[in-house]
Amino acid sequence: MSQSSEEKIFIGSFIHSNECGELIVIDRGMIHVKNGKISNIIINPSSNDEKNKNVIVLNNTQFLIPGFVDCHIHAVQLPNLGVGYDKELLEWLEHYTFPLEKKYIDEKFAEQVFNTVVKQTIKSGTTTACYFAALYPKASVILGQTVISKGQRALIGKISMNITRSDNYYETTEESIININKFIEDLIKLNSPLIKPVITPRFALSCDMTLMKKLGKLAKEKDLHVQTHVSENLDEIEAVKNMFPEYPSYTAVYDGAGLLTCKTVLAHGIYLSDDEIALLNERGTAIVHCPSSNTCLKSGLCDVQRLKSKSIKIGLGTDVSGGQSCSILDAIRSALQVSIHLSLIKENYKALNYKDVFHMATLGGAAALAMDNQIGNFEVGKEFDALVIDIDISDGLLNNLQSSTLEERLQKFIYSGDDRNIVEVYVSGRKVK
Ligand code: GUN
Ligand code: FE
């Protein structure tokens, strides 16, 4: 399916964030979309404008918000959603995750699961996803094809791991380099503006320094994004220390490999030291907050305010299936709840509010992925990636609110809405739900 070349004009309410994280609430505005991009925005258009060709007028229970950005999701782990939270990270990986991920050698299985993942995430309002795909290049390319065919925007990462395992779930260093190059080549051949490859060393415990350095070099040469995990679990951190004793910290291991750039996203970052945060800042590297996963796997409570106060870019991730839901709306709520719990046990800690987390799920996530010049809010020149929210759906619980303010309707959606309230989803101006 081609990108939309037609013109669309939306008239109605819209809400988005600015770079400072402030909420911008427009009761009545008009957004022109041409060739998938926002070409003009008018505040308080006249009722005459509603008579124009190609106008979509939202009703008074509806409003537009930017599409959600999921900065960290494992497409291959969907079949394990909701399973295995009796274990913590390292045992969970061995017992539940790696056995499932080995199945993606079967391309039919990959196709089936990825169809569901992409369909479900679009339904939940994810217009951009940063995916961990499979260890296998063929399955990883299938994820790219699926994303393109369903019209989502995504970064797609073939997982790299070369530490020997008795179950053979790894690549030799040589295979790993051949496979990542083949994957990048095949993904680029798909020739879609919607997807890009992302270099994906699984985490420091899965890759040796030789491989990580080769991947860092590749990312630099080809100007690619990088994604991995950092400082998620105390046993993991201890194991990294033992495996790389010559490096002062977990973050320093990645830096030593040249993997930290302003196009790198690191999931979790719960136990980072001040020195690690300073290093991330210097490199312009972002942290992806994964509150549902941090809770389900009992990894810890991430102090996002501390990271924010030190100017670290922060995106939000579902981290399926460490996290129990594909929905960024659920991640938003988890982030709010974790932050409130932290405020109850920490002195002088101010909990995040719904505006902070709405920003994190949209423009903040876009900035974390270094895509904020392209997506994340409604600005002329950006892609029209947007959700039409309706709080008055017939089978939902949020109706009878016509008299509430627009900001209250956003609150209702954030705290108590679900997929059914996301009535339309647009990526690059094209309706995908
Ligand atoms: N660390 C290494 N691999 C994984 C994974 O698949 N999920 C999570 N949450 N952490 C990881
Ligand atoms: Fe993860």
What average pLDDT do the residues reach? Answer: 96
What is the name of the CATH architecture of the largest domain?
Alpha-Beta Barrel
Largest sheet, in brief, is: 9 strands, parallel
Strand proportion: 15-25%
**Poorly predicted sequence stretches spanning 5 or more consecutive residues:** none
Instruction: State the CATH superfamily name of the largest domain.
Output: Metal-dependent hydrolases
The helix count comes to 14
Helix residue percentage: 25-40%
Q: Termini distance? A: 14 Å
Tell me the Rg in angstroms: 21 Å
Bound molecules: guanine, fe (iii) ion
What is the CATH first-level class name of the largest domain?
Answer: Alpha Beta
Number of domains as seen in the coordinates: 2
Query: Which structural class matches the secondary elements?
Result: alpha/beta
- What is the global morphology? globular
Question: Can you offer a commentary on this structure?
Answer:
This is Guanine deaminase. InterPro entries: Amidohydro-rel, Guanine_deaminase, Metal-dep_hydrolase_composite, Metal_Hydrolase, Metallo-dep_hydrolases. Residues 63-432 form the Amidohydrolase-related domain. By secondary structure, this protein is of the alpha/beta class. The chain has 2 domains: 7-67 and 377-431, Roll (Urease, subunit C, domain 1), CATH 2.30.40; 85-368, Alpha-Beta Barrel (TIM Barrel), CATH 3.20.20. Helix content is 36%, strand content 22%. It contains 14 helices and 17 strands. Strands 6, 7, 8, 9, 10, 11, 12, 13 and 14 form a 9-stranded parallel beta sheet that branches. Strands 1, 2, 3, 4, 5, 15, 16 and 17 form an 8-stranded mixed beta sheet that branches. It is globular, with a radius of gyration of 21 Å. The two termini are 14 Å apart. The model has no long low-confidence stretch (mean pLDDT 96). The structure holds guanine (GUN) and fe (iii) ion. Residues 72, 74, 229, 267, 319, 322 line the site of fe (iii) ion. The site of fe (iii) ion (FE) has 6 residues, from strand 6.
